[in-house]
Write a structure and sequence with these properties.
The protein is an alpha+beta fold. It is built from 18 helices and 28 strands. Helices cover about 30% and strands about 25% of the residues.
Length: about 725
């Protein structure tokens, strides 16, 4: 690893989130490892408390390293581990502030692994918040590297050797960022690049007899004072941490996973036997007597890696858990009352002689990652959680897949990352979201809420409400799309007197929820940087309105007469609209329409139940309003149709699509494209309406929109398989 001249970026975070020792609770300030039993110290609440104390000290004492440096990047990885289990948003917010200050760019050296470490945090923040800017520069840089990789010798004397992953520390810094980028984008190239490059490094630096990594080629022939080979404690800690962070995102069905597991187990078994009596590992693994100083950065990495393996069931608990607890106790004993972590071997200094009071942010990162796994271990020891298994049996990447599982008053933990996920209670249990690779199966743990010391704050990403101040509109949105339908007041209001049950589209290019602010502002027909309403509905079906269609005429209802909100975020909004009876060629028809929209999706699920005289099926047409000019219309026998509208000047093109499982065909009238199917009165009639916008950044053109609609239809047709074991 290398360092660069410091710049004062860390001061930004410290200024925002200053927490000094003087503000510590009395219980924290008085607490020492010598007066705390092992059972108490490893209880989830106690572990979380000391993690937050260490993190608060670090926020209050910025390092001065560049914010995109590897040192900070490892610290950031620890802050993300804490943000995934803490109830305090300031840790996540500090990472967002860091990324914003960096403009979401990686470090200055294009190919250097150290300068890619911060990308792990960018990808994890994107996974939490889904802001495209968080990963856009990294994705562009990695695309360039894939197109023009740097190959060549790993011999340290070779010019340009550090543009390759030619030293063992690099395996923590770069590959996990690449793996995470595949996970959140669905582009497999990044993961495949990381896997191929990992094994090139391993083939060169991994000693298959010792089951340890040389730091780089300069150490091949070197020996310690006792004649043993030179294997650095922190260097092999980087590799073990890197193995964990790869295994979190190498899918269970990937051909390379078994090899990663094998190397992880080999190294874990070897490292277990090198732990010292005080619970720590020394700077030199095979000659600890020559390096007597306690060393907490390597120990933090080993504690993290071994605790993760115990939690995964990859390492025998009876052998490894006692060592993990000893290591955690030893780490905790090196946390001062004010939260400072000490006994950290500084960068580039003599590992035999360093100030016992020294600290470094990368050691704090390792400590926090280890702590998150200790919280997980304590939760499982307090009681077996329910395990939700989610299987994607398709060849599709399923990003932001909503999972519904039974369970009341529970929290959900991702079993691979130990991160607590945003959840929403429903009448049937709880919903959460995950990303799944083709053929991948992932597990999630359900813990009783009362047992978990904290739940991370959840950002609302879906919302619906009745808007009486705007003539009884009903509006709903998520972080991708926004819609409204018209209510009773507008039918008699002299300003518009509009009778229409069509569906309006508000075009947005922000992930924020905007409708409340736009309604309050009142000028939502003007684009002020977030988007606007320029979609024309009038008396048409708009984007997804319906009617009874006899093959010639579309018979439609008036505006909704009443509403009922069933759920209002943070992950799903769900509501019902009632449409009073209307005449459909002499037959009276009424409708109750239940609609739901999940975070991350451009499609609203619609479930209509019709009441009609007699039991005969109703021929239904679900419509998309047609526009004058040259648009792009597609229909597919799988039951979907999409329409990319002609561009409207600088506002660009709106897009709409209907997915109608069981569609009997497609038709058109004077003003609409129609998807048709029969509805049985009293039974659910289900379809999906979706919208997009050329200026949102999600869809560059009609082809991209069609591809998204096609994939969504395929996901609807083949849902994930969910099982629960208690």
């Amino acid at each position: 690893m290398t360092t660069r001249s410091p710049i004062p970026l860390a001061a930004l975070i410290a200024g925002l989130f200053l927490t000094g020792a003087g503000s510590l609770p009395v219980a924290h300030a008085a607490e020492t490892a010598s007066t705390t039993t092992t059972a108490t110290a490893t209880a989830p609440a106690a572990v979380l408390a000391v993690m937050e104390r260490v993190a608060d000290w670090q926020l209050a004492h910025p390092t001065g390293y560049p914010a995109d440096d590897w040192t900070e990047g490892v610290g950031d990885a620890g802050f993300m581990a804490l943000a995934g289990i803490s109830g305090n948003a300031k840790y996540r917010d500090a990472m967002v502030a860091m990324g914003t200050q960096n403009q979401w760019k990686l470090g200055p050296s294009l190919y250097h692994a150290d300068d890619q470490a911060v990308g792990q945090t960018y990808a994890e923040l994107y996974q939490m918040l889904r802001e495209p800017a968080m990963i856009a520069p990294m994705r562009a840089q990695f695309d360039g590297i894939v197109a023009q990789p740097r190959d060549g010798s790993f011999d340290w004397s070779t010019p340009g050797v550090q543009t390759r992953w030619s030293w063992c520390d690099s395996l923590f810094m770069a590959p996990p960022a690449w793996a995470r980028l595949t996970h959140v984008t669905g582009d497999p190239r990044y993961l495949e690049f990381a896997i191929a490059r990992w094994w090139k490094t391993s083939d060169y630096l991994y000693d298959k007899s010792e089951h340890l990594y040389y730091r780089d080629s300069r150490y091949f022939g070197q020996r310690e004072a006792n004649g043993k080979k030179v294997f650095w404690g922190r260097g092999n800690g980087w590799v073990m941490g890197g193995l964990v962070r790869m295994l979190q995102y190498v899918p269970d069905n990937h051909p390379a996973r078994a090899r990663f597991v094998q190397q992880y187990r080999e190294m874990a078994d070897r490292v277990l036997g090198l732990q010292q009596a005080d619970g720590l590992w020394r700077s030199s693994l095979l000659d600890p007597a020559s390096y007597p100083n306690q060393e907490t950065s390597g120990t933090g990495l080993y504690t993290y890696a071994l605790a993760w393996g115990v939690n995964q069931g990859l390492l025998p608990k009876e052998r490894f858990a006692p060592a993990v607890r000893r290591a955690w106790q030893a780490l905790r004993a090196n946390v001062q009352a004010d939260g400072k972590l000490i006994h950290v071997q500084p960068i580039g200094q003599d590992p035999k002689h360093f100030d016992p009071q020294s600290t470094e942010i990368f050691a704090v990162g390792a400590f926090l990652m280890a702590g998150a796994e200790m919280v997980r271990m304590g939760l499982e020891e307090a009681g077996r959680p329910a395990v939700v298994t989610v299987a994607n049996d398709t060849a599709l990447y399923r990003l932001e897949e909503t999972v519904e599982a039974p369970g009341a008053d529970v929290v959900v933990m991702d079993a691979l990352t130990s991160r607590l996920l945003p959840v929403q209670a429903t009448a049937r249990g709880v919903i959460f979201q995950t990303d799944l690779a083709p053929g991948e199966t992932r597990r999630f743990l359900l813990f009783p809420r009362a047992r978990v010391p904290a739940q991370p704050p959840v950002k609302a990403r879906a919302h619906a409400r009745f808007v009486p101040e705007r003539m009884d509109d009903f509006a709903w949105e998520n972080d991708r799309v926004a819609h409204r339908v018209y209510g009773p007041a507008i039918m008699t209001d002299p300003r518009e007197m509009l009778v229409s049950s069509g569906v309006d589209v508000w075009s947005k290019r922000t992930r924020a929820l905007v409708q409340d602010a736009w309604y309050k502002r009142g000028d939502y027909h003007l684009d002020k940087g977030e988007g606007l309403d320029y979609y024309h509905v009038g008396t048409s079906r708009g984007c997804g309105g319906l009617g009874v269609f006899d093959g010639r005429t579309l018979y439609t209802s008036k505006n909704f007469s009443s509403y009922r909100i069933l759920a209002d975020g943070p992950l799903r909004t769900e509501f019902e609209l009632r449409y009073d009876a209307w005449d459909a060629a002499g037959r009276k028809v009424a409708e109750v329409r239940r609609m739901s929209l999940d975070a991350g999706s451009h499609f609203t699920r619609v479930e209509s139940r019709f009441t009609a005289a007699g039991g005969a099926p109703l021929p239904i047409g679900v419509g998309i309003a047609r526009r004058a000019g040259q648009g792009h219309y597609t229909e597919d026998k799988a039951g979907w149709m999409s329409y990319w509208e002609p561009a409207m000047g600088e506002n660009g093109s709106n897009a709409c699509a209907i997915i109608l499982p069981g569609a009997t065909g497609f038709a058109a009238d004077a003003g609409h494209y129609l998807a048709t199917a029969n509805a049985t009165p009293g039974q659910p009639f289900v379809y999906y309406l979706g919208a997009g916008w050329s200026r949102s950044g999600d869809f560059a053109d009609a082809r991209a929109w069609d591809d998204y609609v096609r994939t969504t239809a395929a996901r609807i047709a083949a849902p994930v398989k969910i099982s629960v074991a208690r």
